[in-house]
């Protein structure tokens, strides 16, 4: 009978390495000896990170205090991603809409999209934000409110939320939690990865500490993918035929109005890509994600600084190369690559940390014994392929369904790039019906997220599917009862900046508990 794994080595620190160590040390409850080997020479990328609504649960599982998250990681709340100027209305004016964490309520057992197109979206050709009708997130964002009450316990919520946080500080917090559980930390460089006759990693030759034997290893070495790609020669499949963006010009800026911190990430389209705007508590992480085929480095910096205006005065942007794609087998023999070592799609929609979270959950679920049964690897790899495919499809949707005509870039990503086959199949299907739960995998993006995107990007502007026998009464009831609840929640929830100060232990305020409004 196979023996259980006794020793796990994680190569690489940063968010990927220390989240892996903290999570696995928590769920295995000290039954595995975990070592993190981290180079002092290789820095992490940290402009500020945007997370998914699963991340609070991950922190809770690890045993991290939410107050520490806010106090130490410069964190803020997030309830949605707001897209600006990716599409224009009939008059050519850029539109903005939110992809929310809360919503997804059916009306009379049917998708709210049918009712919206039949009874609401006919006001003299005016563009209406579908999200405002089906989710409280738009009202919360517009009023700069927080997603939970002041006196709720840690991780409780009125509206589902994620965080914006300083990735470097978050990694330090995770490191402390992991090491408090006995995780060993070695600061050293890997000079050589040694394989045995089966092709398994047998040892790492370290610059200062010599040979380090390996039983099971997690590759968290980022885009280098030192073990999986460089040593085990697992092929990397680029997404360049689907996604053109390969550069990001990044800076950190102060808030324009520190007293008003929006609880959302923003993705604003420019001439050859888009700008992310991540409002942390004490600053804003921002960057221009673009294609070098359409802008030189100097041109991208110039356009980005012009967009920032006074916020960018004195800033010294740095350029980061983006490598999009994934390996189809992130688990090979006794090595699993997680984080950037296994793949990366785009910064859009905060998928990088979420994919990392999912990979660790799957790894724990399929954790091997010393025999490394191939069925576990096979299923893990299949599930991770499904996750990457889902993320790629949803990201491609945003570019493919743009209707801008003011630049070659936006015309190219709409008219000349292919899209993944399942997305193409779904878009053809959705010309005749609204997205359904069975149409997508829903590891992260649900059919409701697709519905919000299709509605707000004008997919149904000239071909809205109809449902026979649709009655107006359920929609009128929704407008009379449910939608006012969204606005009421936004009016009663605390100011976002004040809520953050409370989470940091800087203020106190009276309680006013509201019912949950999650989807």
Q: Segments where pLDDT lies below 50 for 5+ residues?
A: 508-516
Give the averaged pLDDT, no decimals: 93
How big a fraction of the residues is strand? 15-25%
Q: How would you sum up the major sheet?
A: 7 strands, mixed
Radius of gyration: 23 Å
Helix content: 25-40%
Please report the number of helical segments. Answer: 16
Cα end-to-end separation? 46 Å
Number of separate strands: 22
Shape: globular
Provide the structure class.
alpha+beta
The order of strands across the largest sheet is 6-5-15-16-17-14-18
Structure description:
The protein is of the alpha+beta class and about 525 residues long. Helix content is about 35%, strand content about 20%. The protein contains 16 helices and 22 strands. The protein has helices spanning about 15-25, 55-60, 65-70, 110-120, 130-135, 135-140, 165-180, 225-230, 295-310, 350-365, 375-400, 410-415, 420-430, 445-455, 475-490, 495-505; strands spanning about 5-10, 35-40, 50, 75-80, 80-90, 95-100, 160-165, 185, 190-195, 200-205, 210-215, 215-220, 235-240, 245-255, 265-270, 275-280, 285-290, 320, 325, 330, 335, 345. The strands form five sheets. A seven-stranded mixed beta sheet has the order 6-5-15-16-17-14-18, with helices on both faces. A six-stranded mixed beta sheet has the order 8-2-1-12-21-20. Helix 1 (about 15-25) links the parallel strand 1 and strand 2 (about 35-40). The longest helix is centred in the C-terminal third of the chain and has 27 residues, at about 375-400. It is globular. About 50% of the residues are buried.
